[in-house]
Design a protein that fits this description.
Layout: H1 2-18, E1 22-25, E2 28-31, E3 34-37, E4 40-44, E5 47-48, E6 56-57, E7 63-64, H2 66-78, E8 83-86, E9 96-98, E10 100-102, E11 105-106, H3 107-113, E12 118-119, H4 128-136, H5 149-153
Parallel strand pairs: 4-9
Antiparallel strand pairs: 1-8, 2-3, 3-4, 5-12, 6-7, 8-10, 10-11
Helix pairs in contact: 3-4
């Protein structure tokens, strides 16, 4: 009897330590793929948004600040609501990597589906379908020309 109680205790401890931790609260938007909740920086898993200073081109040839607009779209979407983010580990900048939800909706997917971010295939293929839909509808950055955020950061501007 004692051994089975001890085994059950061990299973409960192991099970709870492998469960994903969560953080919830109101967010501050840092950029189109990074938010902050209670002082914790959170990188949205599986997506990459244009950098804050990144520009894109409209079909007319006009340049527009797509990175700023991506961050503003995220801020508008998250405004006045509680966001819950799971903890999937840390990136090299020590930011928590997460899928975040607002009112049950996947925020990461919303950003890609709205055309404000792209699927970051290097880390995940979770949002490829959402990207395909955004591209076919010319949503957000897909409305004109842009450099993929990872290429833009490498200087291919």
């Amino acid at each position: 009897m004692r051994a089975s109680v001890f085994a059950m205790f061990i299973l409960l401890c192991v099970g709870s330590s492998t469960a994903l931790a969560e953080i919830a609260g109101r967010t501050s938007v840092i950029d189109g793929d990074t938010v902050e909740i209670h002082g914790t920086r959170i990188r949205l898993h599986g997506i990459d948004a244009p950098e804050s200073s990144q520009t894109c081109k409209r079909p007319s040839g006009e340049t527009w600040r797509c990175g700023r607009d991506a961050a503003m779209a995220l801020a508008d979407f998250l405004r006045a609501g509680t966001v819950t983010c799971d903890d999937r580990g840390r990136d090299r900048y020590k930011r928590m990597i997460s899928v975040c939800r607002k009112d049950g909706m996947d925020v990461n997917e919303w950003m890609v589906r709205s055309g404000w971010a792209v699927a970051y295939r290097r880390y995940s293929e979770d949002y490829v379908e959402a990207e395909t839909a955004a591209r076919s509808e010319s949503a957000g950055v897909w409305s004109g020309e842009f450099v993929m955020p990872w290429d833009w950061r490498r200087g291919h501007r």
